[in-house]
Amino acid sequence: MTSTSLDVERIRKDFPVLSRELPGGRPLVYLDSGNSSQKPTQVIETMREHLAMHYSNVGRAMHVLGSESTEAYESARDKLAAFVGAPSRDEVIFTKNASEALNLVAYSFGNRANTDPRFTLGPGDEIVISEMEHHSNIVPWQMLVQRTGATLKWFGVTDEGRLDLSGLPELVTERTKIVSIAHQSNVLGTVNPVAEVLARAREVGALVMLDASQSVPHHPVNVAELDVDFVAFTGHKMVGPSGIGVLWGRGELLEAMPPFLGGGEMIEAVWMDHSTYAPVPHKFEAGTPPIVEAIGLGAAVDYLTGIGMDAVEAHERELTAYALDALREVPSLHLIGPDSLDLRGGTLSFTLAGIHPHDVGQILDDRFGIAVRVGHHCARPLHLRFGIPATTRASFYLYNTTAEIDALVRGLHHVQKVFA
Fold it and tell me: What residue stretches are annotated with the Aminotransferase class V domain (predicted)?
């Protein structure tokens, strides 16, 4: 068991799936929250209750159900704004996931509908990302440079799994329009030095975006203190449902950006030859939104806030320290990423010499009921950089225990015996 002040046993009782027995009587050991977290009863029941007793479309119906649904939906926006320290609720845009939030921002650059010089993009202009990004923070920018003729550049990654800042002044220059990097790597667990990158970006007038999908669920995050321009994250990694994500952006930038999608609700008025658009945030929320999912995400925020993100962070830090020590005892295990607690989160990716990660994952699941993720984790360029096709990844959250890490270590020893 863990010695943190977090009452993990009480928390685990909130997550029905954690009490499940798998075929053969194996208890579930869920170490895949970096992929998608499990959901507490409080979130499940909030969504069920809304669907059963309050559901209606939002922003349209002039009746009791419509009012209740709209109020619950907009209340979720308020909760998200407070959770990440947004200066204004109107700076919180609901999307279907972090990928859509990243695409929304990328769409605004080089768009003929946007004449703001901060978003004009063409040959000679540059976008900077990093080699450790999730595909969702690579592909939209690749598509953008294909449309505009701009140039895509990227930070390298050191052998220790850190962002290589040695060439920062040459990489981020007066030609850079936006720097978009992960706040925390979904493979390495690395927490990136945002302040240093931001300082250089401000020197040259570039915007900065963070993919915070792996940080917002695990650490206190305050967008005003980060002082960046855009932050994207997703609900399903923070004990909320899938199908709902968030883009936070500076109000003045969101006002300058054209709509990403057209349709109902995002309009002010429509004629046959042109339309005018609703104010932010509704300008970016075309059509019927993921109503119940947003309300479920609001319930997830309530749940995490009730526990306290400082406590969540401290618990995961203790788990990570324990896991780093425990995995060192597994022969021929090679950790990909930082091997200390310094600027890292609870995501550990590794290889076992001579054993493919897919075999590792299958045996852990079949024999021990341990759920980990295997593959390149939607970060193939990072795996190419380390010269490996795939890794095994164990990722921790507020409901995990050191006993589960012990189970992982026993499982890895068994995998090695199988392939001996």
Answer: 29-408
